[in-house]
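ugh ok fine here u go
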Amino acid sequence: MVPDARKYLKQYWTYEAFRPFQEEIISAILAGKDVLALLPTGGGKSICYQVPALMKEGFCLVVSPLIALMQDQVSALKDKGIWRSFYILDYPKRIFRGSWTMQFMEV
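structure:
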């Protein structure tokens, strides 16, 4: 499954290879294992759930307390042509309607 994951990495992010530990994390997710991944800031955590979300059927629910980061990720996914949506609990309703692959939610 990792070669397929690299295909998505190249197609959407234009990277040739994963950063350290990303490949192992993505392989475990795709194998259906429960995964807790701790990576440093800038370590590429987002790709660890975004790539499997593109590869698997259904959608990925992301819950984050970081509104600015969530908005940046949603904007970046939009620029890549990936369906996405987000909802911020303490803002007026901001749900983008339509089909989406990833749903971001602030808590």
